[in-house]
Specification:
The complex is a heterodimer of chains A (about 600) and B (about 210).
Chain A (H helix, E strand, L loop, with lengths): L4 H9 L1 H10 L21 H11 L7 E3 L5 E4 L5 H10 L4 E9 L7 E9 L4 E9 L4 E3 L8 H12 L2 E3 L44 H4 L7 E6 L11 E7 L2 E8 L7 H6 L6 H6 L6 H16 L5 H29 L3 H22 L8 E2 L2 E2 L7 H23 L3 H7 L7 H7 L4 H4 L7 H4 L12 E3 L5 H25 L18 H6 L1 H13 L6 E9 L2 E9 L7 E5 L1 H7 L1 H5 L4 H11 L3 H4 L2
Parallel strand pairs in A: 2-5, 6-7
Antiparallel strand pairs in A: 1-2, 3-4, 4-5, 8-9, 9-10, 11-12, 14-15, 15-16
Chain B lengths: L1 E6 L2 E5 L5 H4 L1 H20 L25 E3 L14 H5 L5 E7 L6 E9 L8 H5 L5 E3 L14 E2 L1 H4 L47 H4 L3
Antiparallel strand pairs in B: 1-2, 3-6, 4-5, 5-7
The chains are: A alpha+beta (about 600), B alpha+beta (about 210).
């Protein structure tokens, strides 16, 4: 009995450990249902969803209802898709939230191309499934929704699904010398494709029709911004055509930070995907953890204990504040207001200190586990959170005093790079950038999770959709987050464990692993065979730092996800960037880019 | 900025109302200077509480859950606790742990002949610590891992194994026992060891009043 001897002795001597571990996790084996990978996934409230789908189905004859899904889902033949999209748009589904594909190589029509549309009016989502074979093409939906432009390019890049009539169907995340389509199941990821200088696409932006015939005395110049330029905050490349100082054409190239998040997820277990989600939006990494865990928990049909939910909510709000602090701080630096950067980054340091005290890492926490949290929060967690909530308003107020009435700042932002509410919805904007156009859409209000519906807070909106409106919305959102945090701290942390007591999902506590055969077996089983959710697919959105962050997971019942789709909010926002900066100047474009808060890690997933 | 309620749950934010005086550039620039001056004066008289850390003379104090460089603990008789069960390398999302198992001829126990961690691949997620069923791998608060060649990024048994009775209590990420100790800010249990300074952190704590705890 030499192994773990010290732990055994310590566990016996220290009554606090012995009590808590043995009361929370009884010595009797877990008696709940053992998940088997043959079970189909049955979402909660499936009857209501099916009933609603039956109501939507008659709106177009091509809609074939698919029952048993977690949202109203319809099969659509490829030739009818444009008409269906148009009909649904007329029926209120005005926002193209997502478009992605799943590859089933053994099938005759191997690709499922999925569209997700959202109706702001009725707060409902529909999913459209188009089944196509390898040689078939789908008519492009870019004529109906502008936001589908980049999504279709991404699906073409990753799966080789062609979209007929797409104005610019070239690769988006992979480079030009790349051969094959990375997310196909039969693609061998060990290949390396080297991009040489002669393969690089020469991007020459199309000149906006409004400026085509304008005759000025200036020579037209094509200028390359980025990819490694301090003002682009990440590896973004923008090519602009200038007439004097006015931007008359712009195009972007992305993918410099493509890390194959979705492909990597398919080769890792559900738990191992967690650190990969950290790296999506690294300014608010914890929210990604929460979003991913909630999606897998939904698939498993489990709920994290209340204590874990509460800690998740508190840290999510702190991370949202940190995200906005980074965005505003760097955006103001771009405009020459350096002092604000120091005032905004100091509280951010403190927020990272709080999360480091919880999980041992500042930027990339990996704090969530499926079913709860890795460890309990430290006992002084709420005091530290309160200290932060007390200190944050002072810094936000200081920034407001510095720039709110400063004419130099206002001249740089008011009316710059505006986007109308209709265009923003058409592009699939979410988050602060959409709310700056006056649309009060927030996932925390529209489909609350973690108990956001029980808190008293408001969704801030602003008029104009310009850089100034985005600044105003972010400032107010930080204050609203502080409001939520104060209420959450006042409620206190609920007692109880921080992770579900289910050895098929969560590792048993160590004191039991060292001492009990049963727990040791569960421990080995879980590490070797992973979590095996039921067969099915589900989508779960959370409000990330800059919009709706959704994960769509397809499970085939094995330990690795069959497909993980991340809906990165930046992707849609950035695709509208050329539209926003045409007719503006370069410094204005830089200020606008900063205010959109494009995070390359999330944009390029 | 002004905040007005438009409907339940929604507020509208608009820019601040600007008087004639505020529309001129100079007064508001001066008002901004007042704010920065206040910070300057406050910092001048509170040099000890400056938020900046003069690294490397001063160092940030991390919590006792910090996920830094790994160690492999030893039993009282000096053998390494690791039994080469491959749990940590299975759980590792970055595939940075390489283990080769051997067998002790006398006790017939498995032990690692080779245990390499590629610190350049490692993402310091702590999954190896969670996965260890033997209380063998811990993470320390050591974060200074600068190296001058790629070859040196791979650390083996020689660098990882620590002697028996090594004070693990104030270290970084440790296995989670399902409870929090009474001292706060610390993960795990401390295993009944006295709380001591981390062996890798030989310098005096930096700015404890600013960064202690959070």
């Amino acid at each position: 009995m030499r192994r773990g001897f010290r732990a055994v002795v310590a566990a016996r001597n220290d009554t606090s450990i012995a009590m808590s571990t043995l009361t929370k996790f009884s010595a009797t084996p877990f008696t709940g249902p053992a998940p088997t990978n043959r079970d189909p996934f049955i979402p909660a409230g499936v009857e209501a969803i099916d009933a609603r789908a039956a109501e939507i189905a008659p709106s177009h004859p091509a809609l074939q209802r698919e029952s048993g899904q977690d949202m109203a889902t319809f099969d659509v033949p490829p030739e009818a898709i444009v008409d269906v999209l148009r009909t649904l748009k007329a029926n209120g589904y005005t926002m193209p939230l997502d478009l992605w594909a799943v590859d089933y190589p053994h099938r005759d029509k191997r690709f499922d191309v999925l569209y997700q549309l959202y109706s702001l009016k009725s707060n409902e989502r529909v999913r459209l499934k188009v089944r196509v074979g390898e040689e078939e093409a789908i008519p492009t939906g870019t004529g109906v929704f502008k936001g589908l432009d980049w999504y279709e390019r991404e699906t073409f890049d990753m799966f080789g699904v062609r979209f007929d009539g797409h104005p610019n169907l070239r690769r988006i995340l992979c480079h030009e010398a790349f051969q094959g389509h990375a997310l196909r199941k039969d693609y061998d990821p060990a290949q390396r494709w080297v991009l040489t200088e002669k393969d690089v696409a020469r991007i020459i932006p199309k000149i906006d029709p409004r400026f085509e015939d304008v005759d000025t005395d200036f020579e037209r110049v094509t200028l390359n911004l980025g990819p490694s330029h301090p003002a682009t905050h990440g590896t973004l490349r923008i090519v602009v055509t200038l007439d004097g100082e006015t931007i008359i054409g712009a195009d972007q190239e992305i993918g410099y930070l493509h890390r194959c998040f979705e492909k990597m997820s398919e080769t890792h277990t559900y738990q191992q995907v967690m650190p990969y989600t950290d790296r999506l939006n690294y300014c608010s990494a914890f929210i990604n953890n929460v979003g991913y865990s909630l999606t897998v928990e939904k698939l498993l049909g489990i709920t994290a204990p209340p204590r874990a939910q509460h800690i998740r909510l508190i840290l999510s709000e702190f991370m949202r504040i940190a995200d906005h602090l980074v965005c505003l701080g760097t955006n103001l630096v771009d405009m020459g207001a350096l002092t604000n950067f120091w005032y905004l980054f100091q509280p951010r340091e403190e927020i990272y200190g709080l999360i480091e005290a919880c999980c041992g890492a500042r930027l990339l926490p990996s704090y969530c586990r499926i079913g709860g949290l890795a460890v309990d929060a430290p006992s002084d967690f709420l005091q530290n959170a309160q200290r932060l909530v007390n200190m944050l308003p002072k810094y936000i107020d200081d920034v407001e005093k510095l720039i709110d009435k400063n004419k130099i700042f206002l001249d740089r932002v008011v009316g710059i790079a505006p986007i109308s509410a209709e265009a923003a919805i058409d592009y699939g904007f979410t988050g602060p950038c959409l709310r700056a156009c006056g649309v009060a859409y927030d996932v925390r209000k529209a489909s609350p999770y973690l108990g956001y519906e029980t808190y008293d807070w408001q969704v801030p909106i602003a008029d104009g959709g310009d850089t100034f409106a985005r600044y105003l919305v972010r400032m107010e959102e930080m204050r609203q987050s502080l409001k939520i945090l104060q209420q959450a701290i006042n409620r206190g942390l609920p007692d109880g464990p921080v992770i579900v007591d289910n050895p098929y999902v969560a590792l048993p506590p160590k004191a039991k692993v060292y001492n009990e055969m049963e727990s040791l077996i569960y421990h080995f089983k879980l590490i070797m065979h992973g979590i095996q959710p039921p067969v099915g697919e589900t989508y779960f959105p959370v409000e990330g730092g800059n919009g709706e962050l959704g994960f769509h997971i397809v499970s085939d019942g094995t330990k690795n996800p069959y497909r993980v789709r991340c809906r990165p909010p930046c992707f849609q926002i950035y695709s509208a960037f050329p539209d926003m900066i045409i007719g503006q100047t370069i410094p204005d474009a830089i200020a606008a880019l900063g205010s959109l808060n494009i995070i390359a890690g999330e944009l390029d997933h | 900025m002004q905040v007005t309620k438009v409907s339940p749950g929604v507020v509208k934010v608009t820019g601040a109302h600007m008087g004639v005086l505020e529309r001129l550039y100079i007064p508001q620039v001066l008002a901004g200077m007042v704010v920065t001056m206040k910070h300057l004066v406050k910092n001048l008289f509170n040099l000890k509480k400056l938020p900046t850390i003069s690294y490397p003379e001063e160092k940030r104090v991390y919590s006792e859950r910090f996920r830094g460089r790994h160690i492999l603990t030893s039993r009282e008789d000096g053998t390494t606790r690791c039994v080469a069960c491959y749990m940590c390398s299975t759980a590792c999302p970055a595939e940075c742990i390489t283990i080769e198992a051997g067998e002790d001829e006398r006790t017939r126990e498995k032990f690692p002949v080779r245990y390499d961690i590629d610190l350049l691949r490692c993402i310091f997620c702590g999954y190896c610590v969670d996965a260890c069923p033997e209380d063998a791998i811990y993470m320390t608060r050591d974060y200074e891992m600068a190296i001058d060649s790629r070859a040196r990024s791979v650390v083996g048994l020689r660098d990882l194994v620590v002697p028996p009775n090594f004070p693990v209590a104030p270290m970084g990420w440790r296995p989670y026992y399902g409870s929090v100790d009474k001292k706060g800010t610390a993960g795990g249990t401390g295993l009944g060891q006295a709380r001591r300074d981390a062996p890798f952190d030989d310098d005096a704590p930096a700015n404890p009043d600013v960064y202690a705890g959070a």
